[in-house]
Amino acid sequence: MQDWRRNSGFFASLAVPPVAWLLLLFLVPLGGVWLLSFGQNTGLTEITVTGTLANYQRALEPLYLEIMLKSLWIAGATTMICLIAGFPVALAIVFAPPRAKTWLLLLVMLPFWTNLLIRTYALIAVLRTNGFLNAGLGWLWDGLSGLLALLGLGSLAPFQPLHLLYTDFAVVFGLVYVHLPFMVLPLYAALERIDRSLIEASLDLGAGHLRTLAYVVCPLALPGIISGVIVTMVPALGAYLAPDLLGGPSSQLIANVIERQFKRANDWPFGAALSFLLMYATFIALFVRAAVARSRGGGGAAL
Amino acid sequence: MQGSFYRSLTRRRALAALGVAGIGFSLSSCGKSEQAPASATGEEKKLNFFTWADYIGETTLDDFKAATGIEVKMDLFATNDDLFAKMRAGNPGYDVIVPSNEFVTRMIEAKMLMEIDQKKIPNLVNIGPEWRDISYDPGQAHSVPYTWLVIGIGYRKSKVQNIPDSWKYVFDSDEYAGRIAMLSEAADVFRLGFKYLGKSVNDFSPELLKQVEDMLIKQKKNIKVFHDDNGQDLLVSGEVDLVVEYNGDIAQRMQEDQDIDFVVPKEGSLLNTDNLCIPVGAPHPENAHAFINFILDAENDKKITETIQYPTPNLAAKALMDDAYKNSPAVYPSPEVLSRCEYGRFTGAEIAQAFEAAMTRVRAA
């Protein structure tokens, strides 16, 4: 193995394709949209970039800020549920026998093999009034009712299907389902790195399992928890498909509003301003987190 | 073409039995172009067709290929906005697109549509006179009507007390709370709201907009979902019992579910047409003309209409349809109701954006 310092030209040339890719297919288009956010519509398809701040001014109206807050709330709830559900899963995988570990990790990643749209559509079939979930519950209910009748205790009222689909619940449910692997994988990576002897020491020295988890495992896994939260929260904040397909009349998140500006409203400058407002907020949050990590010393490795 | 139309009329049954071969035969008698399609159009035998889902006959594309050798690649869009957004940055390679009337105006204004050479579409004679010179495309220079539609209320007969023949049931009543699906197209919803309030669908004013907005905010708790033109599925799956939808979408499903019906509310409604257009920059404009002419053939359009169950402006095709279709009140609402229906006019981007902003406020409220 050569030392990269002695042959830096070779290694730099390896970096050219990814850098070019990033520049041409990500930063340049993004820059174009950024410029649009300072433009105004001058025709049905023409936009003049005038440097106006009117789009941002409109994007900062209470109406749109409230929609952003709602998106933040839905994304936050999704992230918390993913964390609470994902942590035990990650922990179980870490302590599973090595052969099982591979299979369990594969199971976590398996949903990625199916298209996101199809997974979200499948949830419609699960959650709708005559869907699998209600059918299952109805079957249990009828069974219980029949059992009670058999015991001479009368029967229950007929099963009323739950209103699950087209609610905010369905949106969070869909987001958790889609984003859970994003949480489990960084958690697994962090937990896997923990020195087992520290856990043994904690247990030997009299701490119970829960205490060990709270005072030893969690602090050591903190970088993984933080990166899990970020990689779940950021895409959930921009979620578009789940609220569109699973949401009810009020489940309008900021990504849906942005989508409508680019399509129905045909107001690209305003849509661009809304998207960049979201991006500025994300960048500021990441910057604050990096600054905090730096002031604490280290920890930034999680990113 | 007129001749071949009458012949196919008299030979309807025989042609139906012959299937593809029959159509190839009936077409080959209409002109040189079908005998030697490739050299006639001088283009590669390809056509890129961009249309709505469930919106073409089961065998139409195969029939066209059999008749001309031209292979049609079909892509689907879900809303006019999707179509417009896709064409906005320049035609990505489509030859025939199917925008609705308001968007025909919008796309003409944005210089997205090619002028259609009517000489290359002899089957235009099949189109009824009321669609020949139409307000949204004067002189019919850029569009050929494919279907016409009217928005109404699709409903499940066993779940309603009376026929929901007023917009009141979906806009201003809690009788069917939680069992209503509303269209999500802002302009359509607000225009129907205007209609419910006794105004014209084109009577835009900020006050009227606010009035409908307040009405929708009040009604929102009774609405289960704003659907993206999949209302017929919501109705069939039992998710809702009342759905604001296009007549053809509901009529399609009425064939498989007897418990579904459709009504155009008595206040009147929004009329639409969907139109075959050739976008600027189409790589195969000659094939596009041939395709449009093929679709307008009576026998071909009859097959399409049998599948999609939309009202057709093609009188020759309509004449070939069976009585169940021709007399279906869902497909062809009574002239009395139709007289109270209007086309929505595109009157500028500002108004479209005002509809959209109002819808955002309704959804956020």
Key features of this structure:
heterodimer; A: 303 residues; mainly alpha; two-stranded antiparallel sheet; disordered C terminus; B: 365 residues; alpha/beta; D-Maltodextrin-Binding Protein, domain 2; 2 domains; 7-stranded mixed β-sheet; 3-stranded parallel β-sheet; 10 strands
User: What is the CATH topology of the domain at 62-128 and 164-302 in chain A?
Assistant: MetI-like fold
Number of strands of chain A: 2
Shape of chain B: globular
Number of helices of chain A: 12
Distance between the termini of chain B: 56 Å
Which secondary-structure class do the elements of chain A indicate? mainly alpha
Shape of chain A: globular
What structural class do the secondary elements of chain B suggest?
alpha/beta
Q: How many beta-strand segments of chain B?
A: 10
The fraction of residues assigned to DSSP E strands of chain B is 5-15%
So, the CATH homologous superfamily of the domain at 62-128 and 164-302 in chain A? Answer: MetI-like
Q: How many separate helices of chain B?
A: 19
Largest sheet of chain A: 2 strands, antiparallel
Uncertain stretches of 5 or more adjacent residues of chain A? 299-303
CATH second-level architecture of the domain at 62-128 and 164-302 in chain A: Orthogonal Bundle
Largest interface: A-B, 28 and 34 residues
Overview of the molecule:
The complex is a heterodimer of chains A (303) and B (365). By secondary structure, chain A is mostly helical. Chain A has a domain at 62-128 and 164-302: MetI-like fold. Helices cover 72% and strands 2% of the residues of chain A. Chain A contains twelve helices and two strands, in the order αββααααααααααα. Chain A has helices at 8-36, 54-59, 62-94, 98-109, 116-127, 132-150, 168-193, 196-204, 209-237, 241-246, 254-262, 268-296; strands at 39-41, 47-49. In chain A, strands 1-2 form a two-stranded antiparallel ribbon. The two termini of chain A are 28 Å apart. Mean pLDDT of chain A is 90; it is low at 299-303. Chain B is α/β, with parallel strands linked by helices. Chain B folds into two domains: 2-148 and 272-326, D-Maltodextrin-Binding Protein, domain 2; 149-271 and 332-364, Periplasmic binding protein-like II (D-Maltodextrin-Binding Protein, domain 2), CATH 3.40.190. In chain B, helix 2 packs across helix 3 (20-28) and helix 11 runs parallel beside helix 19. In chain B, the strands form two sheets. In chain B, strands 4, 5, 6, 7, 8, 9 and 10 form a seven-stranded mixed sheet that branches. A three-stranded parallel sheet of chain B has the order 2-1-3. The model of chain B is unreliable at 1-39 (pLDDT under 50). Chain B has 19 helices and ten strands. At the A-B interface, helix 3 and helix 11 of A face helix 7, strand 6 and helix 19 of B.
